Amino acid sequence: MQQSQEPQQMPQPAQPQQAPTQPVMPPEQPDQTWQVPQPAQPQQYQAQNFGQHSPYQQNPQCYQQQAYAYTQPYGTAVYPMSETDKTLRLIAFILNLVSLIATCWAIIPLAWMIPMCVRSWGIYKGTKPNTVAFGVCTLIFLSLVAGILLLISKKDR
Known about the structure:
This protein has five helices and no strands. It is mainly α.
């Protein structure tokens, strides 16, 4: 039993094949080359003749902007309202303020009455939505008449 003194060769790992530097074309179409697709260019809006009352005829340059170009700052939503709704909400705010002043001697109710009055002012200005939940809470915790007026007014949500 003799052991051979020859060094054993370790198997070599397979060499990766080199990727071709140019794209491989099928043999039946040798003239074509590969092209990178380009993004589509935005098209300019063409103002059309919509009639005499169209704002497009007055100043067409302001309507040639891209879609969604106007954004409002974060947290400044505007809730449109009619004049009747605006009046109802102003009266509700005034009644909430009167209720707040009438109960200022009680410290504990001020903890929810002050934030509710601030939110009522936001509803009147159009920066906060008028919801059924806030109208009911105003009805129960602040002012009966103001809550009814907020429930009558158009809801934003």
